[in-house]
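Hey,

Quick one before I head out. I ran the complex with adenosine monophosphate overnight. Inputs first:
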Amino acid sequence: MRFDLHCHTTASDGGLSPKELVMRAENMQVDVLAITDHDTTAGIEQAQASAKHLQVIPGTEISCAWHAFDIHVVGLNLDIAHQGLQQQLSLQREKRELRAQEMGRRLAKAGIDGVYQQAKQLAGSAPITRSHFANVLVERGLATSFNKVFDKYLSRGNIGYVPNNWMNIGEAIETIHQAKGFAVLAHPTHYDLSNKWIRKLVSEFAELGGDAIEVAMPQMSKDQQQWLASLAQQHQLCASQGSDFHHPSTWRELGRGLQLPDQCQPIWQRWQAL
Ligand code: AMP
Ligand code: MN
Ligand code: MN
Ligand code: MN
C-alpha cells in the first residue's frame, strides 16, 4: 500500500485542484492520500468525490506559534463536520487575512506597492499564504526563485515578515482530537531549528498529547530519517509520511520516496484499528 499523508491543493497554496490532485495521485499508484491544506478543509469534498480507487483521508495543516517560530501540525482522519474544528480554522484564516494585509503594508513601506492586492487575487477564496506573496514577488522579478523570495523578503527577520499569532501547539492538538483526528508534527527538520531545538519541540509535542511526527519526506537522508524515527520511538509517538506536494516538479512527487524505517509505528494503523 502506498500512503501519502501530506499535500496541498488550490484550496490553499497548491497548484492543482482537489480533483486534479486526486487524479495525479491515482496515476502515481497512491492508495491512501490525505489532503492537508493550510488551515482549511475546503478541498476535501471535491477530492473525495473525484476518487476512483484511492482513499481520501480528510486532513488539514494548522499553523502554530511556538517560541516565535511557525510550527505546522497536521490533523489526519478528521471529522470535518465538527463545529469546533471549523471555528478554530476560521479564526486561523482571519489571522491569515490580517497578517497578509500587514505584510502588504510593510512591503509598501519598503517601496514595493500593491503586493497584497495581487496576492489576494491569486489566492481567490483560499486562505492567503506567504506562497501567494512569493509568487507575486517572483513574477515582478524581485527575486530569481520562489525559495530566494523567502530568504530576501518573507522569512523571519525580513521586511515582509510579520510575527505570527497563530494558536499554540496544545490548542492545535486539542482541536484535532475534538474532531476525532490524529495530530502529527509536520516536517520537524524543515524549521531551521538546531537538533537540540528539534528534540525540545518533539518532546513538548509528545507531552501535549500529540500522536505522531513526520519521519519520511522526499529528499531526506537515511540518517535524518533514522534520527527522527528514534526520536519518535523515544517519545512513544507514531510516525507519518508525506510528500508535502504543492506543484508538479522534478524533485517532489505524490507518494514517491516515502518509506518509514522498520521500527516505526505507522500512524495509519491508529485509524485502521478504530
Ligand atoms: P504561511 O503558512 O502563509 O506562512 O506560508 C507557508 C508556506 O510557504 C509553506 O507551506 C510553504 O509552502 C511556503 N514556504 C515557507 N517557507 C518557505 C521557504 N523558505 N521556501 C519555500 N517555501 C516556503
Ligand atoms: Mn504551503
Ligand atoms: Mn508545512
Ligand atoms: Mn504542507
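Residues 8, 13, 38, 129, 131, 246 surround manganese (II) ion (ligand 2) (CB under 6 Å).

Talk tomorrow,
K.
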